[in-house]
Amino acid sequence: MKLIKDIWFKRRDIVSEGFDESLEYISKLIPLKIHKISSGTKCWTWKVPEKWGIKEGYIEDLKGNRLLDLKDHPLHVLSYSLPVNKVVSKEELMKHLHTDPKRPGAISFKFKYYERDWGFCIQHNKLKKFTKDKYKVFIGSKFEKGALKVGDFTIKGKSNEIIVVVAHLCHPAMANDDLSGVSVLVDVAKKLKKKNNYYTYKFLLLPETIGSIAYLSQNEDIIPKMKCGIFLEMLGNGNIHALQLSRQGSTRLDRVAEYIMKKKLDNFRKGLFRKVVCNDEMVFNGPGLDIPMISISRYPYPEYHTSDDNLKIISEKKLVESRDLVLEILDIMDSDYIPKRKFKGPVFLSGYGLWVDWQENPKLSENIEQIMLRLEGDKSVFDIAEELDMDYREVRSYLDGFYKNNLIEKKNGSFKN
Ligand SMILES: [Zn+2]
Questions:
Q1: Cα gap 318→130, rounded to integer Å
Q2: Which residues, 6+ apart, have CB-to-CB distance to 278 below 8 Å?
Q3: Could you tell me if residue 173 is left (phi over 0), alpha (psi between -120 and 50 degrees) or otherwise beta?
Q4: How many A from CA of 177 to the centre of ligand 1?
Q5: Longest C-alpha distance within the chain, in Å?
Q6: Chain segment 284-305, per-residue pLDDT in tens
Q7: What is the end-to-end Cα distance of the chain in Å, rounded?
Q8: 306 CA → ligand 1 middle, Å
Q9: pTM greater than 0.90 (yes/no)
Q10: CB-CB neighbours of 249 under 10 Å
Q11: Distance 128 CA to ligand 1 centre (A)
């Protein structure tokens, strides 16, 4: 919550001072390695844009009355707007004024990163104030050579295989999209840093789409090491969780996420790849890479991409719920193993202290034989828990008892997606 409060109002455009300052702020919470990719660098079919900045922007009538001023809200000028300084007719001005009629009291968030144009964003219900024929428009934006930055926090595990967690950081002066995802990511990273992990975890903070493309195109050697990933955003609003499946749709991560959501949440919705919400999974899980990437959000919400996406709609309780969900998913991914039978015939449970009283734990007692029949080395603990609709930790701790008695061997992480 503090992170969101401290940096939500910054102008974090894709390559900008506000973006760099936000990364710097976060690097005090988790130690980030900052990758820099210069403006103009060719990245597969894309090119890194110039750094964009703005200090001043306004619309006045010819008597000098201001109808819009950037000082009132960073969203008032279109992201990556060209500079402009001229008198225009009302008709021309209207072509460059962006509003959201569905939310007439809010300023809409609009960007034109790659088409060169100038423009302002304004509350729809303020349009009626434009009654004159001519206006002075001024946008003091600056384009210069800079560097796109990607924040990378990596926690080495026993395995070189990487689980990647991604959030974008390029939405100016809004809170839920995208800082709620960033804050959950930071908290998950802090928690995992204290653990002894099997997988290597890579947490990436980047500008949407171009950040993923720039980072991955300049670090192609890392792509085959990435086992799967989670994209996080829009987690502070009041809506239920939405799980967007990976392109593959039924990988281990897809199944674990759905299993945890069913167990922990009263309600959630599930959708196919790119059918819930569109973010950087199109790069990671896209053509030529195909790293399975699920997305967890609370999309949709009515304040989306407007100035109403501010601190008022963020609930700390929701952020905590989402963080715990991600931690549970990663806990299963990380601690799962394949138990392989070393015994013959049904195990003499009482002799090994593995007998379970049906009155004390009917579900486990009832399923012991079913568990014992699934130890041929083709199923993981999670597979067994999922199949028998049991609690993963309970199955794991029961099978750990088999392991301590030398009745099974453990194979870690050797399962495929
Ligand atoms: Zn967005």
A1: 41
A2: none
A3: left
A4: 6
A5: 94
A6: 999 999 999 999 999 999 999 9
A7: 34
A8: 10
A9: yes
A10: 12
A11: 28
